What we know:
heterodimer; A: alpha+beta; 2 domains; nine-stranded mixed beta sheet; seven-stranded mixed beta sheet; 10 helices; 22 strands; B: alpha+beta; PmbA/TldD fold
Amino acid sequence: MLDETTRDAILKVRDEAAEKGIDALFTMHREKSHLMRIGNNSVSLNTSEDLTRLDVEVINGRREGSYTIMGDITGPDSVRKALAVAVEKASVSTPKDYDPISRMVEESAEEMLQYDEALEAMDPGEKAVVYREIIEKTGSHLNFSGSWSSGSTEVLLASTNNDNLAWRIGTDQQFTCVLKHPEKKWELASFQTGWQAGEVKAGNTIESFNWLLPIYQKPGFRVEPGEYTVLFGSQAVAEIIGMAIGTGMTGRGYEEGMNWTCGKKPGDSILSDRITVIDDPTDMNTFRFGFDMAGMTRNIFPIVENGRMMNLFYDLATAAKYGKKPTPHSGSASVVVSPGDGPECPMEAVKGMGRVLYIPALHYTHIPNRSKGIFTGSSRFSAVLLENGEMVSPIFSSRITDTFQNVLGNVAVLAPWCTSVNGSSTYDRRMPEAASVPGYMVSTGVKITDSAESF
Amino acid sequence: MRVENLERPVAEGIARAMNAGAGYCDARFFSEDGSETLVLYDGNLEANTASFESGLGVRVLYGGAWGFAATSRASDVSEAFEKALANAKTASMLVSIPLNMGVLPAVTGSYSSPVVQDPFDVPLSEKLAFLGGLDERLKADFVQRRVVFLYLQRMRNWFWNSDGSFIERNLLNCFADSMVMAQDGDGQMQRRSKSLLTPGTGTRGWEMVTNPDLWSGRAEGMKEELSQLLTAPELEYGRRSVILLPGQGHLQVHETIGHPLELDRILGYELSYAGGSFVTLDSFGRLRYGSDKLSVSAFGSVENSPGSFGYDDEGTPERDYLLIDKGILVNCLTSRAMISEANHTAGRQVFEHSGGASRSTAFYKAPIDRMTNVNVLPGNDGNLSDIIAGTEDGVLLDNPTSWSIGSNREHFHFGCEIAWEIKGGKITRVLKNPTYQGHTLEFYGRLSAVGDRSTWVVEQVPNCGKGEPNQVMEIGHGVPVMRFDDVITGEEK
């Protein structure tokens, strides 16, 4: 955890800046990260990082500047130096045509609800043991890859606008294992997540592989372009919902006519009435942050209710520019999609539906037309052709190019249970993020626009 | 941390690791990894940020497995070596094919990006005045949104390894974009943009940013094209020729030649994240990747590019070599350990030596196989006008709006900002919302025209993502105008 010297240095300089009338937000970010990567049944990388960053954001009237340092933050002088650079940048900056909103820590907080010292200090050897068990019990003649990231993230926010101090430390882990047949080239994948040591279990991955291995002995099926009923797995559901929100529910995109929701207003129907989405920082399937990275206190925030558009996200700059109230969504969101009333088992859900494509995850999705809500991406791991709920054969890489309005508008069944999907990126600084989504979703009339003759 | 205080502890750390049984050890110290980002959005300075990172990264190969550790604390230098060695020992618990770096002669050298005026020495007020001037030129009654973006990087680093190599590098990159946007008659946002490119020669300091031929002189053209998009019909679904301007062609090459030819992807080390490759070790010297008009190089002796860096992050000098020779795949992007594994796996010598493509984005990231400059060599099919004149039914495409590629890079779907319809060898009108899709080998097999040197520029890519932990790398692509026939364009209704 953060040592007192660093914490005291930030607070000392914060107080000095406040006395001088400087409008500043100080954000300290410390990560203790470990990542083990697997390739070709070997550990291909075993890496540790212990990094501390300090961000200083300064507002000077209508001018803003910011500065980030990573390195030795050994005392007040390091913090003063960062502050001085940010102050200088703000002073030289060109003024905006609106008044920026000052960053303020709304409430003091000390959060460690999802902190597990054992996970933070996990011996990397334990990870190698889990991967070895998976390889040995599933079959070492197959090719295994994967990665397992774990660690702690600690943030501290303090602004010159009040004496409040928001602090959080939490642990998180993200586990992936990919099984590839060395000759047939198909890939199966298993994902696990959590914030406590012991949550990732070799048995879960072995079980998920064993479920699909028999069907993957059969030849692959090439899906002809056309409209299909698709049984999406939780990874795909999280991906589609996340992109739909990102391109439809941001205030900036809405105000400026870019979103696929433009032309609609809160209360209007935009998706299937089976779809309800909230941002819920209390949901244990997500990584819980009681405050956002601008210091705003987070609460339950309705986004889509029974298919109706509810609220948009407004970052500070957009809120200031368009005269809106900012919403607390800088940093890690907790997207929670309500479960449905379908059967427990996804295969039961598609009995009687004839030909159905089971697509657990999507690869490399993108947005060819944001205004129309068109997205595209291809099937990857573990995709299977189903006939009336029975697995028939694995399917080759197939491309979906469709709209959010269609795929999330024609939802026939949603799982009655939710699962956590880890969406953390390891780009830049560690910032855990997860969504809670139904375990599966069945959509009808989904457009397959291309397919390969390989996996 | 200061480099003069590091030489001894680094040498001692490397010696300790090797004495403990390591097969290889290297260390890289960044005294500065600095950046500055300025973004004008509708004239408002929405981003005015800078960052500074400094620290040491250590990599140890032990028992055929990698361990890595990094620290930003001067007091933890010795501990970083111990941690990297411990991580490597743990990794060696699970090894099927031991990695091997081989032993190479020590390399001593230095490299500095060619620069006349360091942009970090240019006063912020001067930079803002320049960007503000460009923003003014983007204004027009019909333009609803304007964006001017500048991103600067400066890295000063030192490298040591157990071969005895010692390399100093001073790298500098300038990236810039500008964009205008407006809603068309259907309420859809259309855009035109222009990124800072390089001719491949010359210098890459502030003088590159302010050269109107490379970026900032395109404001009027962007606005004119945007105005045409606002009343343009949509590109209809169908098969036709596509001519890719370098603004689009570089991303096509990046995604469907560059990434599939990274050796770590070919060997399966990216399966859990970025994906694999349809290329196998048996493909080299045999696989027809495209028509005989397709020749592709790595590095390409491009002196002014973010993909030119002197030495890679394991001490190999950058190399100029062919990846594809008249349509035949002959080589790929390689690092020392990956060629060792590839030759072992194939049971023969597929690769002779490293391509100098082992790169790391920061002191706290371990090097992986990356692109350098992946360039399509200019052809003999004339200039852009010649290629248009030789096209019966096609579209000319520029600048990506979306890109989605199959996990083994076998198929793709791209969206572009603008299409110009070509009928009977002439441009007839502008079309909006253009997309095209295809299968990589089939697509390059239909490469029917490659523009001459007059059409060739180096497009800069500041944000190529790969690896776990993810690393965002800067690279370059020298590409000419290219025409492909019988391509699926538009979306089927």
